[in-house]
């Protein structure tokens, strides 16, 4: 049976609400914050009051009782205006709070989720390591059981939301033992911010996403209670493969928003900018560029909504999530390049949103699984 990707009245109301918030609250402020590499605390607080951080979580944990489709809708609308704000929400929900909800004990859920859903605290996900990258299974960080505690040593890199003033926890993957075959057993452990030995490095100097928080983390004899184990010991890597599958849908929605934002800005500019006595939008070369951009954004939207609908329906979605992430990230880069070209010299100026979009687009082909990894996943799902 074909999936219906049309929005329900509730989802459409959410879309309009976030669209209005993005244009009226984020758009006037984000350019200055981006240039100053400043985290948008007030915007994040407002998003918390709107319930965006709790969208896919049950009301009993302080959530909004929505689903992953609702989260994707919000991410797309935010990213049409700015990706730094969108990735802050995506990482906080998909990578920070979702592991606690999916794999946590009831006590862990009730301890953390209400504050994560309200935006009072942000969660982070410590998977990638300096020697790892795409080889996330080659974890070197260790967690050794010492009585009623885990002792953690190691480092993580490229961690979003890791060092803000409202970061509450980082869930860390670490080797907790060896199997009978000698292979490392990877588990997940919750490390609250401020735990002795847990050091957060200064924020990275990045090409894009300059109003989001990304840092390297180090763990030197960090002790946390044994009860901070998230899920079953030795199943941490498998758990986060599931989390990353879901996260790819969210990143695809974000990439679609960026691609659509490039269309929005290009249409606006093509109507306003005159050359040789008429708007540049009257030229077929510009019209065709923008038409192709719209086509790509539309098909990216179909892709992520298809994957999200399958997830919500409880159907297999791994292949569809990889396809959506691969396609949407590719077209986000393509649309950002074309939007910059349409704007000409002004597209190279930071005062124009397309300059931000051009800088922000490339990471979408790298983060949460590179384009090469997505192709590997798709091929594997096809039985190759």
UniProtKB/TrEMBL annotation:
Keyword Oxidoreductase on entry: yes
Highest taxon, organism lineage: Bacteria
GO molecular function, one term: flavin adenine dinucleotide binding
Keyword Flavoprotein: yes
Occurrences of domain Acyl-CoA oxidase/dehydrogenase middle (ranges): 124-222
Keywords from the named record: FAD, Flavoprotein, Oxidoreductase
Pfam families recorded: Acyl-CoA_dh_1, Acyl-CoA_dh_M, Acyl-CoA_dh_N
Domain Acyl-CoA dehydrogenase/oxidase N-terminal, residue spans: 8-120
Annotated ranges, domain Acyl-CoA dehydrogenase/oxidase C-terminal: 234-382
Cofactor(s), names only, from the UniProt record: FAD
Family: Belongs to the acyl-CoA dehydrogenase family.
Name by which UniProt lists this protein: Acyl-CoA dehydrogenase
Lineage: Bacteria, Bacillati, Actinomycetota, Actinomycetes, Kitasatosporales
